[in-house]
Design goal:
five-stranded antiparallel sheet, globular, 31% helix
Length: 254
Amino acid sequence: MGFGGKGAVSGYEEFFSRKFKLLTHWPSREAGQMDSRRMKIMGFLLIGICLTGCATLHDVVQSKERGEGTSRVYPVNADQAWEIAKTVFRWERTETVEEHRSEGYMLTSSEESLISWGAMIGVWIEPVNNDSTRVTFVVRRKNPTELFISVTEAMFHDDFELAGRIKTGRFITPVPVAGKSPSAAPEQPTTSVGDVVTVTWTFANVRSGAGNDFSVIATVKQGDRLTVIGEDRDWFNVRLENGQVGWIDSKKVR
């Protein structure tokens, strides 16, 4: 079951069960003297923290939609960037990776420890052209009140450069775009109704409405040509080559 689906509640129960055991089985004299009442209070406090503000993987997706996260453009294609990002997650010993290949992003989480509750992590792989890819890491603390976090977006980018060098045999220093800093996203060219755009992603979903919450009605592949018949914020209403009409994220076409 996915991280962001109906299993989120049971996932929280498992997480807090493990955290509760860590706290209540601490190998010290104080832990051994804790009575059942104090342990119950601690358990309720932990659950209360969860219900009032713990981050989920769905929060990571929403953060990206708000434009949060740290982006850099690397001189690798989208397939290479995808494998490099998976290598970074293995290095960081994250938990199971939830891959959304057609949507161009992955979600995972770091394990909790005695000094950190861990973090929810997402990476977005967005082709700029055939030879460069924008990579965006978004990291959210599981407990927003926690001061210490073991992983940061900058750390992931540092690991991405190193892993990319190992996999490609060359340096993959972030590429400046249009005179901007390496972390800046390239500007999208102006598109008008009636224009024909080309899919730049390996695969991209066409949805029934302008947003990721709408159902998928078709999938297009890199190189497919679509006719723009409308626009709503960052989404294009398009007509496919077979005549079907739907909505596609404007970042996935050019």
